[in-house]
Amino acid sequence: MSIALTRATSARFGLRWLWITPLVLVTALIAGTAIGETPIPVDTILKVLANQLLGADYAVDRIDAGIIWNYRLSRAVVAACCGTSLALAGVVLQALLRNPLADPYLMGISAGASTGAVAVAVAGLGAGALSLSLGAFVGALLSFGIVVMLAHAANSGVGGGRGVQAAGAIILAGIAGSQLFNALTAFIITTSASAEQARGIMFWLMGNLSGVRWADVTLAVPAALFGLLVCLWHRRSLDAFTFGADSAASMGIAVRPVRGMLIIAMALVTAVMVSIVGAIGFVGLVIPHAMRFIVGSRHTRLVPATALAGAVFLIGSDILSRVLVSGQVLPIGVITSLIGAPAFAFILVRGKRS
Amino acid sequence: MADATNYPVNLTNCGVEISVASAPEQTVTVGQSATEILYSLGLADRVNGTSVWFNPVLPQFAEANAEIERIANDDPSFEAVVNKRPDLVAVQYEWHVGPTGSVASRDQFHELGINTYVMPADCDTKDNSTGGDGTRTAAFSTESIYKGITELAEIYDVQDAGEALIADLTAREQRAIDLASSLDLAEDLSAAFWFSSTDLGVSPFVAGQLGAPGYMMEKLGIRNVIESDEEWPTVGWESIARADPDVLVIASMDRRRFPADDIEAKREFLRSDPVTREMSAVKNNRIVEMDAHAMSATMRTIYGLETLAEALSNMSFNE
């Protein structure tokens, strides 16, 4: 009886998401625009949004208008895109590797991005021609490529092998890759940065949305949409992969090309996000698990739910990072890790019990 | 004429007892401030190694400095310093040579019979155990600079040179303060000091209340819009723009590790960012360029005070 009831509820729930999504997202975006380092009256915020979106002509202070439109709203939109992308990358990696602990942050992508950024910022790689973001992007792809090849060389992982063993190999490869790139980052910092700079770099490594402007939105939105569409398109394949590569093959899925394509797409999207805002951990781990609790593990529902929850989670974390310590902005990665690390421990312990 | 030094010189320096038996013949410096003070005391011939440079050496010492080995631009290694066989290591920052020094702790030098002297400007009124660039426990004042000069002059037995240098700096300090007070500046005039940022657009490093820039603003009757007591807090442009200081002071430096190190990049950002370009300091071109090293607690702080006073005298505040 109760099972039937749950099913009926979750089916209705699955449909309801479609209605709730825009409403929840818009609410989160408005909250991200309304709450910040300095207090701005609500009517000012509404006037600025009306001016910008509806072509109204309210008189508002130009600095207030600039802060609301150019700093806060663009920042909230990028936070949403970033949360969506990182959470979806987690969903895909967990399904493909059949490992609840798979997450872009744990698989070397963030570590590589950090190294790339630091190499540009501190060591002057590219002599000014390379931007910090491009360095992060190259580093992210490089480290992820190394992790995948390492797992592959262990005769398992992306190219073959069996579920659990393959998953174990790629997680171990991720740890090795992360350590290698973290060591490189530390090497670059200690050989060529002063303490003041090391602090600045650390701020960036923990994620930093303070430099976001509309130009970043034009990169973040297409990347996030691309990630979402890829996941939605392959939702049935993802379902099949959760039962293992052999099961997926028996369902008529071209295992290697689909798996390769999904991993490359997620690595790309993650690298884009890391290059815009720095390394933000645990989003790809915590959000998919939380959503499985709520909507179940079918990807038809899990993908949109995770995309929305990731967006809201990161907008919320960003708000917290701005208001937690008065007069100071914490790196957003600090907030997500403070929430994420205990959740990680919980997943570990729970996995052991089951 | 000042007295000759009676050795041994016993001092409490940044909380550490030191005893100097005779005037040091060989010195290695860790920090540009210590280097330039020794040069100013006419002691270039007793310096045989330098490290940690922020700006080019003061022009009057360029020739002497060229003869002296630069061990490292940034942090030197402990062994590189020790290998120069110094009698004394003169230090600008405790985070280089101090309890958790990146070069060494003071004990490591003392165990080898090498004395250490840390400029009091970095520890009087400052807590360096907080990490980063430390936190001021009370306002920096040039007294700590003069104290450092007096003590070094005594250690090296050049007390006349020490007194002459202090007299010169005090006179310059007073002239700058007099100039500013003659300007009839507005009661509520405000400013912010922008050192650099890790990337253009991200929250910048700005001067807190109690460091060298705080001292300059206090002396000239200007309010610092940044309220933190940290030496160089990171504060969002949103907060800075909302505070809308009348004057922005931006650091010039030779360092090129962050895009914002370049003074032109700073100017370009201020002019083009949709929020900062609306700030009154930017709109009315009340932007002052200052040597980055003057923004640290050093002898050059007084030069920075002059720079700021002169810039104010050339500004119009009638909007």
TrEMBL record, chain A:
Which Pfam families does the record match to this protein?
Answer: FecCD (PF01032)
Q: Which residues cross the membrane?
A: 17-36, 76-97, 104-126, 132-154, 166-191, 211-233, 264-290, 329-349
Is-annotated flag, keyword Transmembrane helix? yes
Where does the protein principally reside?
Answer: membrane
At the top level, the lineage of the source is Bacteria
Flavoprotein: is it a keyword of this entry? Answer: no
Annotated localization = Cell membrane
Which InterPro entries did the record assign?
A: ABC_BtuC-like (IPR037294), ABC_transptr_permease_BtuC (IPR000522)
What is the membrane topology noted in the UniProt record heading this document? Answer: Multi-pass membrane protein
Keywords in UniProt for this one? Cell membrane, Membrane, Transmembrane, Transmembrane helix, Transport
Q: Which CDD domains match?
A: TM_ABC_iron-siderophores_like
Q: Which SUPFAM superfamilies match?
A: ABC transporter involved in vitamin B12 uptake, BtuC (SSF81345)
Entry similarity comment: Belongs to the binding-protein-dependent transport system permease family. FecCD subfamily.
Protein name, please?
A: Iron ABC transporter permease
Organism the protein comes from = Halomonas alkaliantarctica
